[in-house]
Amino acid sequence: MTTILVLYHSQGGNNRKMAEAVADGVNSIEGAAANLKDALDAGLDDLLACDGIAIGSPEYFGYFSGALKDFFDRTYEPARDKVFRKPYAVFVNAGNDGSGALRNIERICIGYRLKKVYDPIVIKGDITPDVLEACTLMGQTLAAGCAAGIY
Q1: Positive or negative torsion for Cα 55, 60, 63, 69
Q2: 148: which residues sit within 8 A by CB, 6+ positions away?
Q3: 63: number of Cβ within 10 Å
């Protein structure tokens, strides 16, 4: 079974909707399952057990969620060299333009030595059906690629 960690944080609910759509996409792929986790509830075991990770955050003050940063801080040292080239994708619900949040998430992923395998989804404003469809496709692609051994 291929497991994709869908790691997110959401206070207003928009990022959770996006995360749920990513998880739905993962779960639509035969032999794949999403592990949907709020960053405050996720830990090292979730990171080590997954085959790929979708990372979602709202943008606050040009940066990503502090809860997500906390997850990265808690898991970095014990995960070093254990997640090398694990595939990842990012989705951001932006308050500004999303570039600061995205840039800093990607910098952290470089530190973990994860492998970016999907173009980020950065949206500003309402969560539309098109946004949710894009998130579902992200989940499907990440899961299918991991399941097939492409990533």
Answers
A1: negative
A2: none
A3: 16
Give whole-number Cα distances, 19 to 6, 42, 54, 76, 85, in Å. 6, 14, 8, 22, 22
- Residue 107 is part of which domain span? 2-147
81-122 confidence digits (pLDDT tens): 899 999 999 999 998 899 999 999 999 999 999 999 999 999
Write the CATH number for 138: 3.40.50.360
Neighbours of 146 (CB within 10 A): 24
Q: Which residue has the tokens 């996006």?
A: 18
Task: Check: pTM over 0.90? Answer yes or no.
Answer: yes
Q: Is 98 left (phi over 0), alpha (psi -120 to 50) or beta?
A: left
Name the phi and psi angles at 5, rounded to 5.
-80, 120
Among 86, 96, 150, 79, residue whose Cα is nearest residue 116: 86
User: How many domains does the chain fold into?
Assistant: 1
Chain centroid to CA 84: 16
User: For 141, phi and psi rounded to 5 degrees?
Assistant: -65, -45
Average the pLDDT over 125-146 and give the result: 97
